[in-house]
Amino acid sequence: LWVYRELYRSQCLVPEMAAIIREVEPGYFYTVADQESPEGRQELAAAGIDTLEAEKAVTVGIQAVQLRLTKAGDGRPRLFIHSGCVNTISEFFEYRWAETKEGRNADEKPVKDNDHAMDALRYMVRAVDNPPVYAAEAAIEKSRGDRASDYAKYF
């Protein structure tokens, strides 16, 4: 899986992003979109951009990306990031886990700061690697919570 371009914008409305997607990716297959914005997905659909609902299980997504970054039998990973994807690369170095708070264990989730590219990468890897089980896992996730052990059989 090659990430060769990133469309990283702030303060960009969905119709503007749809125009950018259509301009730079005329041959795309679909876009993985945040399910917390059904209006945004509707706007993308109106612009002719098909979307899949992002499966947002954080721990499972991180594990999927880690699996892709692990060297395979030929000694190469299965995820490559082009050097022009500067925000994605930067976020790899900024991504960190929550620190332990006094009297409590740290949450087993990354800090939610400067992580938009990492979120998008997780969503893409999960959608590409698990199309047959993607929707079923998203439904399980909503009902059970974010527990990686629920999905271990898929990795």
Main-sheet strand order equals 1-4
Low-confidence stretches: 150-155
Number of strands: 4
Could you report the average pLDDT, rounded to the nearest whole number? 82
Oligomer: single chain
Determine the N-to-C terminus distance. Answer: 17 Å
Shape: globular
> What summary fits the major beta sheet?
2 strands, parallel
Structural class: mainly alpha
Percent of residues in β-strands: 5-15%
Approximate helicity band: 40-55%
Topology:
Layout: E1 2-3, H1 14-24, E2 31-33, H2 38-46, E3 51-53, H3 58-69, E4 80-81, H4 86-94, H5 116-129, H6 134-144
Parallel strand pairs: 1-4, 2-3
Helix pairs in contact: 3-5, 4-5
Brief descriptors of the model:
155 residues; mainly alpha; two-stranded parallel sheet; globular
Describe the structure.
This protein has 155 residues and is mainly α. The chain has 6 helices and 4 strands, in the order βαβαβαβααα. It has helices at residues 14-24, 38-46, 58-69, 86-94, 116-129, 134-144; strands at residues 2-3, 31-33, 51-53, 80-81. The chain has a two-stranded parallel sheet with strand order 1-4. Strand 2, helix 2 and strand 3 (51-53) form a beta-alpha-beta unit. The protein is globular.
In summary, what is this structure?
With 155 residues, this protein is mainly α. It has helices at 14-24, 38-46, 58-69, 86-94, 116-129, 134-144, and strands at 2-3, 31-33, 51-53, 80-81.
